[in-house]
Every structure is written in structure tokens, then in C-alpha cells.
Amino acid sequence: MKKTVITAILVALTGTLCAGNVYSPDQGIICDKKSQFCADSEGISLEWTKEYLGAKAEARWTKHITKDFDTTIFTMSNGLYCDTNKKICKKSKWDDNADPHWTKIMFGK
Fold first, then answer.
1. Which helix (H) or strand (E) holds 5?
2. With the C-alpha atoms ordered 58, 64, 69, 74, is the resulting torsion angle positive or negative?
3. Cα–Cα distances in Å, from 27 out to 50, 61, 95?
4. In whole angstroms, what is the distance from residue 28 CA to residue 62 CA?
5. How confident is the model over 54-102, as pLDDT tens digits?
6. 49 close to 7: Cβ distance less than 8 angstroms
7. What gap in Å lies between CA 56 and CA 49, rounded to an integer?
8. Under 8 Å CB-to-CB from 84, ≥6 apart: which residues?
9. What is the span of the domain harbouring residue 47?
């Protein structure tokens, strides 16, 4: 019985953590392997990018993020669109409704 429960938990975690290029390594963080950045509830994070995707990814984004670059609104490679000012993630920029799964991961609601 214990083995079955542990297996089910591992399968569930693997699905959340490794489903394609966009994944959540921890509550409140979403990363995109293809676009090479991570974000939290405040926006694109160089700290999380370095921790989960490496120094090379962090260096790449350090060049792009300037005072004119809005890190609070972003789109992942799978189309997931997050606006940290409105505290919402949607399946696409043009979607009217929040994606409950990703919004909960990012903002806890």
C-alpha cells in the first residue's frame, strides 16, 4: 500500500515539474526551459533564473533587462501569459479567464 501511494505522489510531482518546457520547480516560481527564464509573483527573476536554469541563462537575461524592460508581464514559450500586477496567469494573452492551475502556482490563489 505504501509503495502505491509513493508511486502516485512521484507521478503527480513529475507531471507538474517536468511537463514540457514550462514547469514549476517550487511554489510561487514558474520556469521556461525554452525561453530560458524563471519568474515569481513579482515578475521575471534573475535570481530564480540562475538557480534553476544556470548562470548562462541569467547572463543572457541580464543583457535584456533594462530600465525600459517590463519584467512584470511575460509570456512563456507555450503561450502562458502572466501579469504580476493583476496577479493572474492565462493560457494566452487573449484569454479572458485565469488559468487556475498556473495562477495558483504563481500567486497561491
1. helix 2-18
2. negative
3. 17, 22, 23
4. 21
5. 999 999 999 888 888 899 999 999 999 999 999 999 999 999 999 999 9
6. no
7. 9
8. 39, 41, 42, 43, 72, 73, 106
9. 2-107
Q: Contact, 43 vs 74, CB < 8 A? A: yes
- Domains in the chain, number: 1
pTM: 0.79
Q: What percent of the chain has pLDDT over 90?
A: 73
What residues have CB less than 8 Å from 53, skipping those under 6 apart? 31, 33, 36, 37, 38
- Distance, in Å, from the CA atom of 57 to the CA atom of 88, rounded to the nearest integer, reads 25
Q: What is the CA 17 to chain-centroid distance, rounded?
A: 10
Residue 54 cell numbers, joined:
544556470
Q: Which three cell numbers stand for residue 6?
A: 509513493
Res 6 pLDDT > 60: no
CA distance 19 to 51: 19
The owner of cell 544556470 is 54
